[in-house]
Amino acid sequence: QVHLVESGGGLVQPGGSLRLSCVASGFTFRYSGMRWYRQAPGSEREFVATVDTDGSTNYADSVKGRFTISRDNAKNTVYLQMNSLKPEDTAVYYCYSVTQTYWGRGTQVTVSS
Fold first, then answer.
1. pLDDT score, position 2
2. What is the largest CA-CA distance in the chain?
3. What is the pLDDT of residues 6-15, one digit of tens each?
4. How far is CA 56 from CA 52, 63, 69, 79, 111, in A?
5. What are phi and psi of 88, to 5 degrees?
6. Which of 24, 52, 68, 76 could hold 81 in an S-S bridge, CB 3.0 to 4.6 Å?
7. How far apart are CA 28 and CA 109, in angstroms?
8. Which pLDDT does position 31 carry in this prediction?
9. Cα–Cα distances in Å, from 89 out to 12, 27, 33?
């Protein structure tokens, strides 16, 4: 059974940092591209970042230069390091497996003073 469990969200001041984690189970993690998406209240879910099986990455323009996606295949975990956070980054952040087409339940990130 596939599971994706996100953690690391919370309340942070503008300019601060957070690191999100997503632990995967129930499938062969190293064979799956992994992505982060986010959804703000009243908005559509939007793409944030992706990391392929070879470690190559891509980012939404809105987070480029501030966020870094990475993966640790030994730990079945994908990370999202978020720096220089802005109030507009406030959203629920979701982990997604490309091969399993499966979503985690999300973790809330709130950027506010």
1. 95
2. 41
3. 999 999 999 9
4. 5, 16, 10, 14, 28
5. -75, -5
6. 68
7. 28
8. 97
9. 11, 30, 23
Answer for the pair 23, 4: CB distance below 8 angstroms, yes or no.
yes
Residues paired with residue 26 on neighbouring β-strands, in sequence order: none
For 48-77, write each residue's pLDDT tens digit. 999 999 999 999 999 999 999 999 999 999
Count CA atoms within 13 Å of residue 67 on its CB side.
27
By the 8 A CB rule, do 103 and 36 touch?
no
* The pLDDT value given to residue 87: 97
Cα–Cα dist 22/27, whole Å: 14
Residue 7, token pair as written in the block = 């953690």
Token pair in block for residue 66: 């501030």
The predicted-structure confidence for 11-37, as pLDDT tens digits, reads as follows 999 999 999 999 999 999 999 999 999
Bridging pattern class, strands 18-25 and 67-72 = unpaired
What are the phi and psi torsion angles at 22 (to 5°)? -140, 115
